[in-house]
Design goal:
With 189 residues, the protein is an alpha/beta fold. It is built from five helices and ten strands, in the order E-E-H-E-H-H-E-E-H-E-H-E-E-E-E. The strands form three sheets. It has a four-stranded mixed beta sheet with strand order 1-7-10-9, with no helix packed on it. It is globular and about 50 Å long.
């Protein structure tokens, strides 16, 4: 999840134009997607991704990095959680997508236990529902060196303490800093 220094993942009116993206960031995104076997979206993030990446895959003006990101996203299994969407549509450049009405913790635990690659939760609201069910094993926050001053905060709506342990960090030439955290479970010191 990309964050500003003041803790926002999106600016006012869902603005993401402040995200600090460069070649090094794109290489990281490709690495991360290669480790991902399932992407979980909420409705709004799904619609943003679905409106951009299939077109980017065939646009001759798309950079080689973004073409690779589009290819990886297209081929990765995707589940969108939405109570308002009637259906999801697959195309040649947007495959492997399923719709679920709600998060079923039993199903998610079963998916987590299956052998294979990582599961990526790509939405703040969805992440909150996963946090409430203790379904997240690792958080990855890409901190951008910017203060946006408003918008939506990453943990908006979380009404309990979340104790995290820093496990790794990585500095990018752009000034971005990637922080890896794991949740401390009850009884851990």
């Amino acid at each position: 999840m990309t964050l500003s220094l003041d803790g926002y993942f999106e600016g006012p009116n869902h603005d993401l134009s402040w995200h600090n993206v460069d070649h090094e960031f794109n290489k990281f995104a490709i690495e991360q997607l290669r480790e991902t076997g399932l992407i979980l979206f909420g409705r709004r993030t799904y619609q943003l991704m679905e409106s951009f990446w299939p077109k980017a895959a065939v646009d001759p003006g798309t950079s080689p990095d973004n073409r690779e990101i589009a290819r990886l996203i297209n081929n990765t299994e995707k589940i969108v959680f939405s109570r308002t969407l009637d259906s999801v549509r697959e195309t040649e450049n947007w495959k492997n997508v399923k719709l679920r009405r709600k998060v079923d913790p039993v199903e998610i635990r079963r998916l987590k236990e299956m052998p294979g690659k990582d599961i990526w939760v790509g939405t703040s609201d969805l992440a909150l529902s996963f946090i409430k069910e203790d379904l997240i094993d690792e958080f990855r926050f890409m901190i951008n060196p910017i203060v946006v001053g408003g918008g939506r905060r990453i943990f908006e709506g979380l009404n309990r303490k979340l104790d995290l342990e820093l496990t790794e960090s990585r500095k990018f030439d752009s000034g971005n800093v990637l922080l890896y955290y794991r949740p401390r479970r009850k009884g851990e010191v």
